[in-house]
Amino acid sequence: MTVVMIHTLHYMTSVMIDQAPSHELPGVSAVRVLRPAASDTEAVLEMLGRCSRATLFHRFHGFTDGADYFGTLLRDGPVDETFLAWHESRCVGVATFGVGATGRSDLGVLIEDAWQRRGIGAWLVASLLAHARARGATTVHADVLGDDLFILEALRRIGPLTVSIEFGSYAVDIDICRQSPLLP
């Protein structure tokens, strides 16, 4: 079942799609979280094709298919700062963090529509942050669209947050010094 909600604010209209999880799909216990290899590029691009435009918009905060970003990341980027979620031979999610020019670590997560709200994103983030902690990171940054308050709740379970509002989205800094309780 898909529920579409439309919110009209003074300066913009946002559309939020809430998809109930399919009962045919197994839970998070059937998913493996692994580091990617260059040979995984095709599986990640196929996953992007299964993502709705709304899901891609919420990940990239703009309209893109994500193919150039993930193609470049898996070919040239630091794949040691990327984790993929797999169900059998199918990629169903990806989490990355990259260090920008300012030294800030930016977190990004994308879960295929049919697999959302099953704990896979939390598991990917916990795996990624455990790796970041081991490398000495103490804070990770995430930009969250204003419609995605459930993401703020998930991030709050990781560690203390510093949140500011910037142009309709939340700029979130997460203190990752303590152990994450999110791993299943």
Give the neighbour order of strands across the main sheet: 3-4-5-6
**SSE pattern, N- to C-terminal:** EEEHHHEEEHEHEE
Q: Could you tell me the radius of gyration in angstroms?
A: 16 Å
Span between N and C termini?
26 Å
Query: How many strand elements?
Result: 9
- What fraction strand? 25-35%
**CATH architecture assignment of the domain at 23-136:** 3-Layer(aba) Sandwich
Mean pLDDT: 81
User: Share of helix among residues?
Assistant: 25-40%
Number of helical runs?
Answer: 5
CATH fold naming of the domain at 23-136? Aminopeptidase
Unreliable runs: 1-22
List keywords for this structure.
single chain; 184 residues; alpha+beta; Aminopeptidase; 4-stranded antiparallel β-sheet; 3-stranded antiparallel β-sheet; 9 strands; disordered N terminus
In short:
The protein is of the alpha+beta class.
Question: What does it look like?
Answer:
Strand 5 and strand 6 form a beta hairpin. It is globular and about 35 Å long. The N terminus is likely disordered. It is built from 5 helices and 9 strands; from the N terminus they run E-E-E-H-H-H-E-E-E-H-E-H-E-E. By secondary structure, it is α+β, with helices and mostly antiparallel strands. A 4-stranded antiparallel sheet has the order 3-4-5-6, sandwiched between helices. The chain has a 3-stranded antiparallel sheet with strand order 7-9-8, with helices on one face. A two-stranded antiparallel sheet has the order 1-2.
